[in-house]
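Same chain as my last thread, 657 residues:
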Amino acid sequence: MRQRPCVVATLLLAVQAQAQQSPPQPAFNFQEVMIPVRDGAHLQTVILTPTDKTGPLPILFRRTPYGVPDGPPAMVPPSIKELARDGYIFVIQNLRGRFKSEGVFKLTSQVDLADSTSTNETTDAYDSIDWLVQHVPNNGTVGMFGVSYDGLTTALALLHPHPALKAIGEQASPVDQWMNDDDHRYGALRESYAFEYAVLEQADKYKNTHFGFETYDSYSWYLALGPLSNINARYLHGSIPYWNDVVAHPDYDDFWKKEAWVRQLHASTVPNLNVAGFWDQEDPWGPWQIFRHAAEHDPDHTNYMVAGPWYHGQWRAPKGDSIGLIALGGHETSREYRETIEAPFFRYYLHGQGEKPSWRAITFQSGTNRWRTYGEWPPKGANATNLYLHADGTLSFDAPTPKARGATYRAYVSDPANPVPYRQRPITPTYPAGDWRTWEVQDQRFVDQRPDVVTFVSVPLDHDLTITGEVAADLFVSTSGSDADVVVKLIDVYPEDAQPNTWDPEAGPAPVCALRQRLRATRRHGGPARPISRELRAPAPAHSEHAARVEDPAPRPGPRLSEGSPPDGAGAIDLVPPDRPQPTKVRPEHLRRDGGRFHQDDAARVLLPHLAVAHRAACRAVGRLRRTKRDTRLIFGTRVTTPMPRTPRDCYSRSRP
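reply #2:
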């Protein structure tokens, strides 16, 4: 009986002791300021100073349209944990016109260096850095980094960098919204993305706005929408300036050329760590273009390139040990990048510690699942070769012969009223959730057997094949329509006896979407959705069957595949088309996906879906049609020397021998 009061007293003492303990110290001291810039506007800026570091520290600066923290984080976010160990003052700023920042947000990357009175993201960055180094105790060095739009504002500082800006980490920055970033694929409007993102950023100054769809499947919504003009007529009513500009400029005119800010970059002005994802569904083009333009004059070798097996921004995820259903051989690629590449880069340039990077490019080679380091890019040891489409549906390194018997072309009918979807339905909106991040690694069976998709398949390969470099498709196409675009996907076909994905039924049901994808990936050939090895110079999305898609209505010269002895063995492929489109009556398509290992005994497959889709359609993998026919027939095959007959509904494709 006397023991009970003792127990109660012990519990009370324990509770009192816990109550007397002070709350944990926050990771950062928080300060919010309004930084003035040259035109008198003030920009909302948050300064996070680490509480566990002393002495002058470098500043790491990020400029964003998405909002800044409203208080100190309780702990260091995983995305910057590796950087925080070295000690930085993290500064986050809302762009002009966003949230509390004054001015007008124009959603533009235009910079006029000749106009000293103009304001833009380059001048705002310069003025903000100038204020920070004078008003925030620091060691005199500033770095910038960021992903996507934050990567854009980082990269724009290259055009006129402040003297205190000593290093930047540009990550998935767009450079040309008409060519191959975000809104278009070589002029092919990605209507759903361009529309939804414009609403996200310009519908409300004080928040990020997600458009409210009336239907679950956005494919159905866009198909029922009708003409492109109905977006303004029914929903926006001209209220989104950037969307109005997109609609008003369907061609590569002065508006888009001014938006292509990278045309002004011709030297490595600040040490820059360019970062790209091989499966970046938004900005696969920008980092590679920045890397190339800066390389035009880089005597001090301060221009670096990193590419990994990531969707858009995945390198800031905690682990990065898979993409979709594709595991990466036990590698936590995101953490490995931040720990062994990004942190040492900024440590050297901002802290003055460690060694200068001796490499020019680092890529993660999927398939073999290992990091590869190159002293120069593109790497030596690759020779160009051709991969041919044959009229009988085969894919081969052997050129077609002029005396080949049978049909010299392939044809199919494409109906704009039934467009090929660019991902498995139901298609969720771009943001805030759904499968948008990983749709480029999805299984492709949902389009493989459609009558408006043409497939070319190789025999099983007799040796492993590694692709390192750009891939281009040179197509000879004739169509009964007035204008059209072609999408090409280069796919590694798994053998029938490939090991199936493991899934423990005792663990309970998986999420519905993930389960569907797993079943799709497993049933095709009884094997896993394993990636081909990818090392890119100009990346593009791939799919779980290892598809590289072409979304390029701009002309390109013939393909150049290289087969030789690259750094990691025989069988390299390196395709390098010129940077600028060439005028021609034919529209060769440019494969944005670089790199890949096609394994021995696997077959290679090329899908050529002709997506003759009007603006009202949901398939955003293709672009604009100036005039739409009810149906369009395409024929793919070998080159012919005599004129071919034309009928109102027939079209022909001739492949170069």
